[in-house]
Amino acid sequence: MRKLEYTFKTDTLFKMLFVQYPELLKKLVADLLGIPLEGIGQFVIRNPEMPPENLGDKFCRLDINMTVNGQRVDLEVQVCNEGDYPERVMYYWAREFSSALLTGQGYSTLPRTIVISIIDFPLFECEEYHSFFQPLEVTRHTLLSDKMGFHFFELPKLPSDVGEDDMLLLWLSLFKAETEEELEKIKEMEVPVMSQAINAYYTITASSEFREKERLRAKARHDEAQALHNARREAKQEEKFEIARHMISDGEPIEKIVRYTGLTKESIENLKV
Hints:
The protein folds into 2 domains: 11-206, no CATH class; 229-272. It contains 10 helices and 6 strands, in the order H-H-E-H-E-E-H-E-E-E-H-H-H-H-H-H. The protein has helices at residues 11-20, 22-33, 52-55, 85-98, 167-176, 180-187, 192-205, 208-249, 254-261, 265-272, and strands at 43-45, 64-68, 71-78, 113-119, 130-133, 148-154. A 6-stranded mixed sheet has the order 1-2-3-4-6-5, sandwiched between helices. A hairpin with a 2-residue loop joins strand 2 (64-68) and strand 3 (71-78). The longest helix has 42 residues, at 208-249. The chain starts with 10 loop residues before the first helix and ends with a helix.
């Protein structure tokens, strides 16, 4: 199988494609939220920009903020689980929700704010690929407010067989696809929206603008990985020094400390100073 160089999960591709093809984004959001396309009146992308100077920042988050029928919708794709994803999502929800309150306005004017996360890892201990959370009273299950909502779509849990009439699963299958054969299989179903999305994929990935943006993002990812590697190496080295200090205080011979820690005699002697 021919592995895709970039997938729909690639954050630069995700942002560029759906900003440049807003009708595709509108259809995607309608299917993710489970509402009819014709039911969407107001549809505005509020953060279409992707400044090159921000792409080199490892903290740059390439999500898409929208206003859909008066409610705020934040859509993002996440590939790696760093162990704190629910907290991260709630943090971004809180920032998005609170930023909508203008000076002099009452709290009741705050809009319904929904976060949609398409994630490439299992997050919850359940078989369902779609989970939706809202704040409920724990015994009576009374809804506190419908202005908070979190949709999670877990790609590893998708069924292997997808019908051409299931638009939600078709969209998610696009995001899950890792090979050209998988994209071609979806395109062969001759679902117009899917064909449009795949054609847009090839148009975007062939552009020099995308290649440059992805180069900057790849550099940021590499720099972050290198910084993490260096931090772990320094922590491991400091652990060796700490062991050596204890052995020195216990009167252990240098030769034994060298064997236990792998440190040089010179570095151990320096610890005695």
